[in-house]
């Protein structure tokens, strides 16, 4: 028999012919291998794995996960932050009978480790995956490509063609998707990205500032007339670089962010950005997890939630030469 058939019989969640069930039962008894305990009991907790400091971005997601788990009557085990005390190893979760499932937020663990968790039967959902996932791993993310395309199309509509890109790390799935959206919008405007205007950074204000300095210190004819940043934090760093060089935003340079954090409404001018539905990502992840824990049929495991372009004061028409 196939592994899938045996798994269905032992988990008891998909109809299998009585004769087949009996054959598998006899084989289990003969081999002395007990059937795995069914996950998803009322007592089972959900482990939330977020190996980052719970600042605005991660804090919003974790808070929404916690609130939604509470609505489902589930206990939460939180592994978060970058403290000296190590987090619970993911590989140990399937062996813990008190854990019904897990929510993994931007997990840095390699895809092979996540596939190992799936193979061992742990129900889990990934929020904003860092790398491409196996099709059978449930995931929730924002529509990065569409969001990036919308903000670049906005700039192109204002006449910008030399657009600097302060992207995230090149190995991140979101960075690749954002670049696809950016390229698509520029192609529609009749041009393509210029490699000398693209920088890949760890998306923090400090690195955003350094990347923007690099772009704005190019010879005048090569400088960008606009900069799209990977997130609002990197965009804030770009605003500082522009200010130090006496560039007016948006008269001399347009700058955009991504995420729509409170930070973007605190800058001068306020940031044009792309709103990610961070709280809804947390809610959707819990909803998917509860269906996995309860062995419901799932036709769609990868969910992308729509983004929204928010136009504020940091973008304006391209300055004429």
Report on this structure.
This protein is α/β, with parallel strands linked by helices. The protein folds into three domains: 36 residues, no CATH class; 128 residues, Response regulator (Rossmann fold); 133 residues, Response regulator (Rossmann fold). The protein is 37% helix and 16% strand. The strands form three sheets. It has a six-stranded parallel beta sheet, covered by helices on one side. α3 links the parallel β1 and β2. α3 runs parallel beside α9, α5 packs parallel to α6 and α7 crosses α8. The longest helix has 16 residues. The radius of gyration is 24 Å and the shape is elongated.
Detail the topology: elements first, then pairings.
Blueprint lengths: L2 H9 L6 H14 L13 E6 L5 H16 L4 E5 L18 E7 L5 H9 L4 E4 L10 E5 L1 H14 L5 E5 L5 H16 L9 E3 L4 H12 L9 E4 L2 H13 L9 E3 L16 E3 L2 H16 L8 E4 L2 E3 L11
Parallel strand pairs: 1-2, 1-3, 3-4, 4-5, 5-11, 6-7, 6-8, 8-9
Antiparallel strand pairs: 10-12
Helix pairs in contact: 3-9, 5-6, 7-8
Report the span from N to C terminus. Answer: 72 Å
Q: Could you report the average pLDDT, rounded to the nearest whole number?
A: 90
Task: Indicate the CATH class of the largest domain.
Answer: Alpha Beta
Strand content: 15-25%
Under the CATH scheme, the architecture of the largest domain is: 3-Layer(aba) Sandwich
**Spatial extent as radius of gyration:** 24 Å
């Amino acid at each position: 028999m196939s592994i899938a058939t045996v798994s269905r019989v032992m988990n008891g969640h998909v109809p299998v012919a009585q004769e087949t069930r009996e054959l598998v039962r006899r084989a289990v008894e003969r081999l002395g291998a007990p059937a795995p305990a069914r996950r998803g009991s009322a007592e089972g907790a959900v482990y939330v794995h977020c190996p980052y400091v719970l600042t605005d971005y991660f804090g919003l997601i974790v808070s929404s996960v916690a609130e939604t788990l509470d609505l489902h009557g589930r206990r939460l085990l939180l592994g978060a932050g970058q403290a000296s005390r190590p987090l619970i190893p993911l590989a140990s979760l399937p062996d813990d009978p008190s854990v019904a499932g897990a929510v993994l937020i931007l997990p840095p663990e390699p895809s092979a480790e996540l596939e190992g968790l799936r193979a061992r039967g742990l129900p889990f959902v990934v929020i904003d995956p860092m790398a491409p996932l196996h099709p059978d791993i449930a995931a929730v993310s924002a529509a990065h490509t569409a969001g990036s395309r919308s903000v670049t199309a906005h700039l192109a509509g204002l006449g910008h063609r030399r657009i600097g890109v302060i992207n995230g790390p090149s190995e991140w799935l979101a960075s690749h998707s954002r670049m696809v959206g950016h390229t698509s919008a520029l192609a529609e405007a009749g041009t393509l990205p210029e490699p000398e205007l693209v920088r890949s950074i760890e998306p923090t204000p400090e690195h955003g500032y350094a990347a923007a300095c690099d772009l704005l210190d190019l010879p005048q004819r090569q400088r960008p007339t606009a900069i799209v940043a990977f997130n609002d934090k990197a965009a804030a760093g770009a605003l500082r670089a522009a200010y130090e060089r006496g560039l007016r935003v948006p008269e001399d340079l347009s700058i955009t962010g991504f995420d729509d954090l409170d930070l973007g409404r605190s800058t001068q001018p306020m940031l044009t950005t792309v709103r990610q539905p961070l709280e809804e990502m947390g809610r959707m992840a819990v909803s998917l997890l509860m269906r996995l824990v309860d062995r419901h049929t799932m036709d769609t495991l990868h969910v992308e939630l729509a983004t929204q372009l928010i136009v504020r004061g940091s973008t304006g028409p391209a300055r004429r030469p």
